[in-house]
Amino acid sequence: MSVITTRREGEVLVVTSNNPPVNALGQAVRAGLADAMAEAAGDDAIQAVVICCEGRTFFAGADITEFGKPPVGPSLPEVIDAIEASAKPVVAAIHGTALGGGLEVALGCHYRIAVASARLGLPEVKLGILPGAGGTQRLPRVVGVAEALPMIVTGNPIPAAQAGKIGLVDKLVAEDGLAESGVAFARSVIGKADHPVSSKRTDKIGEIPSDSDFFDEFRKTQMRRLKGFEAPEACIEAVKAAIDLPYEEGVKKERELFGKLVTGTQSKALRHVFFAERAAAKIDGIPADTPVLPVKKVGILGAGTMGGGIAMNFLTAGYAVTILEREQEALDRGVSIIRKNYERSAAKGRFTADQVERAMGLLTPTLDMNDLADCDLVIEAVFENMDVKKDVFRKLDGIVKPGAILASNTSYLNVDEMAAETKRPGSVLGLHFFSPANVMRLLEIVRAAKTEPAVLKTAMDLAKKIGKVAVVSGVCFGFIGNRMLSPRQRAAQAMLLQGAKPWDVDKALTDFGMPMGPFQMSDLAGLDLGWDKANSKSETIRDVLCERDRRGQKTGKGFYDYDENRRPSPSKEVEAIIDEFAAKSGLEQRVFSQDEIRERLLFPMINEGAKILEEGMAQRASDIDTVWINGYGWPAYTGGPMFWADTIGLDKVVAGLKAHAAASGAEPDICKLLEDKAAKGETFN
Ligand code: T1G
Predict the structure, then answer these.
(1) What is the pTM of this model?
(2) Does residue 124 carry a catalytic annotation?
């Protein structure tokens, strides 16, 4: 069955793509489109063409799986140029998501119609590239630079209605009968003398000169998104070329920029990230026909920071949530914080007032655990103490209906032990959200020894519905992310005793692209987590800091001093405390280069990741990358810790671990899987 079929509707040729799952513009689709355009050109009975797609979406872009392989013609630019050169009007009939090359095909068409639920975008920048089939040259001509630039540099799609407003879509049509609407529209333009051939359009391109401060102003709004990424700047350069150069020259400039990016490390890393996030949704070892269990009502134990944030995920997705606290005052505080969070997001335009009221209307606060009886899923977010959690699971098991899922939001603790407190171990698992739970995309689904396949699959299905990127972890201390965080924090502390200062250590990681370094992170979380105040005897730097009430951002000082806006600055007092402990340690004091600090912090993480893989605690190396990018802000343009290790070479990681151990007079701790792979020149991904 050809992926592209054509049929005649009187004088209109309807060209349909059927290339599941997303009508990616693979070679067969491109060839089919080229043949269809030749058919249209060669038959006088055909006076117009409609291009549409079967399945869930219009073309969602080039076929990313073809990247890095030898190109096979016809190229997408060639196909689009043939569409645009047609003497007969070509109409793109859009549904789903017209993205990347898909939107570029639509831009080569003379007209575009779309259903209201469609979205249109050029997300190439998220893959470390830029629109490489004329998008940076045609879109500004169709909608103007001011509208085109954000679409190209952020990669975020826009809804069809907005596309209609800016002239990207000529007509919004009914959700049903899109092809028929396309034929009707095509008939309405047959015979029109001058089709608005986009690539020749210059009416909107002249509005903003390329030396306008519009570009610098725009850069300022995108600083966080732009930091460290190469593609956004190239996108800006390509749009400037659309302003300054004739179309053909501009396309050449686009192609040159595309060629540099697509062969670069950042694009390889970001394409890895794209597929890694999707691979993570695949759970090894469960039958394909495993059912997804029905979940309509969710119970949350604990209305604190985590419980409230977790509740918001489900409320926003339209689930009824019953939230439980022990005291009325804590319950009221929790509910009020949820409302305040919604209102703050609404003020930023993320929610409408109606959406906030709808979400809050789904929330039922209670002090009575029996009110959770009819929940399909209950998540506990109570104090991180095993005895407390065991007691909660025992009580829940006796109250909640048979078949309901019981989940723990624990960050570290053993979910098998919690499951053993119940008569339903098959329905118990961990759902580890990351703070702030209503913002961070990552969810670690902790697979306990007895967790049933249907429960796992239901959790994965729920994760997607609440907009999370989920990764399955086995039961081990800290699961995947926090388990790898521990050796990094230990390495950071150890360097303080050898002459390093917190701000130098943190800088090495923020320069690498992390949002913060180990000490900034400790100050954010609070230095007194697990600190035993009553028995503290100034034995460690952390003890002394806490004893002096330097407990982190919440007390205005920790490793850093913080101003009223929580901006950090190095502290002389802390420096003196560190110097005292370093002198007492008897260790050789030295100056660390930024490269060495980075290696000392990150290589032990890679080693821990290798152990996690070796023990089967993660299903695949790319899952570990997905955890660190979505849970801790690891710079996506390096692909995540395991992809980054592959890029620099596992032999370099092993050599570094050995060298740093020797320099500290310690025995190297190197995972066998890592050592074997390094020796064989293999990679994790
Ligand atoms: N190429 C190949 N496979 C793709 C694909 C693509 N462009 N998009 C999705 N898939 C696969 C995906 O791996 C998964 O496979 C399945 O489709 C469902 O995807 C020349 C060079 C369209 C919004 O960046 O954003 O055009 O895991 O799970 O959540 O200038 O997929 O089932 O085996 O994500 O409903 C630009 C990328 C390419 C769009 C649907 N286009 N895709 O989301 O399903 S570069 C993109 C998406 C380009 C031109 C340049 C999303 C989606 P599997 P899914 P979804």
Answers:
(1) 0.93
(2) yes
- All CATH 3.90.226.10 domain ranges in the chain, comma separated: 4-262
Partners of 405 in the β-ladder: 377
| CATH number, domain 297-477 | 3.40.50.720
CATH 1.10.1040.50 domain span(s) along the chain: 499-585
Calculate how far, in angstroms, residue 127's C-alpha sits from the geometric centre of ligand 1.
Answer: 11
Q: What CATH topology corresponds to 499-585?
A: N-(1-d-carboxylethyl)-l-norvaline Dehydrogenase; domain 2 (1.10.1040)
64 CB under 6 A from ligand 1?
yes
pLDDT at residue 299 in the model:
98
The Å distance, Cα 75 to ligand 1 centre, comes to: 19
Report d(CA 443, CA 454) in Å as an integer: 18
3-class DSSP state of 676: helix
Any atom of ligand 1 within 6 Å of the Cβ of 62: yes
If you average pLDDT over residues 569-578, what whole number do you get? 96
Among protein residues, the one whose CA lies closest to atom 16 of ligand 1: 21
Residue to mutate (ligand 1; options 3, 17, 19, 22; most atoms within 8 A of CB): 22
For residue 99 and ligand 1, the question of a CB distance below 6 A is answered with: yes
pLDDT tens digits, 324-358: 999 999 999 999 999 999 999 999 888 999 999 99
The answer to whether the CB of 277 is under 6 A from ligand 1 is no
- The DSSP string of 158-204 is EEHHHHHHTTS-SEEE-SS-HHHHHHHHHHHHTT-S----GGG--TT
Q: Which CATH architecture has domain 4-262?
A: Alpha-Beta Complex (3.90)
Active site residue 329: no
What's the CA gap between 393 and 398, in Å, rounded? 9
Per-residue pLDDT reduced to its tens digit, 56-87: 999 999 999 999 899 999 999 999 999 999 99
What is the share, in percent, of the chain residues with pLDDT greater than 90? 90
Three-class SS state of 111:
strand
